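Supplementary material to the annual report.
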Amino acid sequence: MTAVEKTMGRAFAPDQPEKAWKFSDILADPAIRQRWEKVRRYFFLRESTYDMTRRCNIRCNGCYYYEGEKQHARDNPDAAAWRELMQAEKARGITFVVLAGAEPSLVADLCRVCFDQIPLGAIATNGLKPIASDIGYRIHVSVWGNDETSRRVRGADGMLRRQIENYRSDPRAVFVYTFTRENIDEAGEVMEILAAEGCRATFNMFSAPVGYAGGLDHTPRTLLRTRKTMMSLMDRYPETILFSAYNAVAHTHTLGLHDLYGCPYPRMNPSTDVGLGRSFRQYRTDLTWDRGAACCVPDTDCADCRHYAAGSAVVTARMFRHAARPDTFTAWLDYVDTYLAVWVMGYGKEKNLCNELIAPPGHEIFEI
Amino acid sequence: MTVGIDNITLSVAEVMINELKLEDVTPETFDPDMDLVDEVGIDSMDLATVALVLQDKYGIRIDEDDYPKLTTIRFIADYIEKKLQENE
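Predicted assembly:
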């Protein structure tokens, strides 16, 4: 019997009515209480995202940046303008920045300006050009399969080798393996290499841009196969992979994140009362933003969105509904612990509290 | 259960102060009409935490769609009083 089953007690008995749990009863478990106290210290994080430049040194099939209107915004290379923006962002309460499209490493000076103003954040990069170590953000290095697949889908040779050369032993780096329909079976060889090199990794799901017809998007069968692969790799490389069973459940469901949890980003959430609907902005390279398009991965088809960055906000924001039962709350704590370890410099991942597949509140676990 | 709106207001302020580690304010000096988001600087996760603690304390059910709108201590106290009356 696991700790969660012990805590759940009668709630697992099929012939008994489900117990109505008090939050204080759930927190009476010392392991749950300790994890809760650890993660809640980071509730001050308020995120916005920023496209840094239109330029990229590669072109990937299904790239989010080169979809929709934002790719046509002009670059603003003026460091003073970026400094002013960051100061204004800080003044309105933003404490965490995500520097993304198209390739931030090509404008490292602008990344440094951001870091000087708001010291917590992450940079999404393809990892081919190293980012100077004085820019102390998390670095997310995107991996889309083995080198043969990367050559075909991203048009670049020796990507994993070059990424590892640039970020081996770098405490900022987390390699983000994006599962597509066709690279599921390559994840094992990539994780073996990353583990041998002492790198850390997490998982992402390819989520189709609006109108995408490129063949990398998932089917129910590939979603299920991806989940099984994720679970197997987590078991095999626990020191390497920052993930949890609940991450796997949430990101491989046939329902996308919005249908499972209700996306709180402005693009899908008209409320400006509190939270992301109130504070989140997604700035384009010309430093403008559009509420109607504001989410962490604009131009993704919301129905297909299982993106790791989206989940970091969408699942995390739904604490209230997860706190109704010990099993869902424990799963949520693992998810938040993973999110913080992946995104926040200095946060150390704990051992997952729950290694079982727990259904999202109000839904079943997806099976075929 | 008769608690009284003034007692609820003080109690909500106390929960808010304890859970969110607010400084320089006591339940008695906490302005119940102060906007918790704009003026106190709390966010959705803080509100969710307070809502969970208040559910336990008063034995009521706060709807998930409701707590983001409970943006002053007075709103929260009124909401709790209404729920308590519904439960009577």
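Chain A has one domain: 47-315.
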